[in-house]
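Quick illustration for those who missed Monday's session on complexes.
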Amino acid sequence: MSPPALHRIGIGTDLHALAPGRPLVLGSVRIPFEKGPLGHSDGDVVLHALIDAVSGAAGMPDIGEQFPDSDPRHRDADSRDLVRHTLHALRTTGHRVACVDLIIHAEKPKLSAYKDAIRRSVAELLGLDPARVAIKAKTNEGLDAVGRGEAIACTAVVGLVLTDSG
Ligand code: MG
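Prediction with magnesium ion bound:
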């Protein structure tokens, strides 16, 4: 039987400034590095871009509207909880995530050794086969804030299928 056809597609991006002494967490995987994202939550750019991609695909409000940073409940939030909340809301739209494509934009650290762990972590969080999650890591060729090592960013694209399509 052929897999169900994609019904909707969404895109999300996120960027956080990096500061010394903050933990670097990407796709809920802790990466050893001297800097990490500044932010109200844990600053996990992978999960934040993913949330916006899922939300966009389903026509739901963006991450800032769902989880306003003016709300103290989201201070140092574990972004996995935000993803779970978004997936719960997604179910009510009659969709589920079928595939994810992620690009992490970072000058440093080198992420090649961590890509598989991030892929598995994101897949587990989404209840997907890891083969349905792709991760690319790119430098910014030394240009702009990412290239100067002042920021880290992620671009996510998500495909949704209808839950009743098998
Ligand atoms: Mg963010």
